Amino acid sequence: MNPALLNVLVNFGSVLLAQSIPFGSRPEYVLWARVWFVFSHIACIVVYYYCYDKADRRNDLRPLKYMNYKSKSDKPHVTTVRDYDLVETTTGMTNVFLALLFVGFLHVYARYTSPLVAESLVLSWHSINAPVVKVWFWGRPATGDLARPFHASQRIAKPDDAAQGTAK
């Protein structure tokens, strides 16, 4: 299945699941949603920390040269595989903490409960499918789509590419 379509289905499915839970009539469901929310965030942080530790211990000092399209310079960015993986895992942990703060604010201040469940599912899905987690936690070889530098998957293929069965 197309990864972009699968991500959309996971996002919409988690929202539908979260809205179908009767939090108003069953107050104990709110407690379970909170526990699940905290547990999923702790699990994601542990997975990212495991990947960080494993990349740090491997100490792969092979040079990695790539064009960083976020910067305005035309010079290629030069780093090592170790440093690149450490930055990727740190970015993943930062995303987990930001999601924790944002949804925690929605729950504590605005009294929304459905985002607890939806964010738990979506965050877990995106964390286990992150390229750095696939390489270090699941042990997949860093070839093909998992070759460094990690590229974001193309969201929507052009119509002529889809007709030919190839995405550029």
UniProtKB/TrEMBL annotation:
<dbReference type="Pfam" id="PF10032">
    <property type="entry name" value="Pho88"/>
</dbReference>
<keyword id="KW-0732">Signal</keyword>
<feature type="signal peptide">
    <location>
        <begin position="1"/>
        <end position="20"/>
    </location>
</feature>
<dbReference type="GO" id="GO:0045047">
    <property type="term" value="P:protein targeting to ER"/>
</dbReference>
<protein>
    <submittedName>
        <fullName>Phosphate transporter (Pho88)</fullName>
    </submittedName>
</protein>
<keyword id="KW-0812">Transmembrane</keyword>
<keyword id="KW-0472">Membrane</keyword>
<dbReference type="InterPro" id="IPR012098">
    <property type="entry name" value="SND3_fun"/>
</dbReference>
<dbReference type="GO" id="GO:0005739">
    <property type="term" value="C:mitochondrion"/>
</dbReference>
<keyword id="KW-1133">Transmembrane helix</keyword>
<dbReference type="GO" id="GO:0005783">
    <property type="term" value="C:endoplasmic reticulum"/>
</dbReference>
<feature type="transmembrane region" description="Helical">
    <location>
        <begin position="30"/>
        <end position="52"/>
    </location>
</feature>
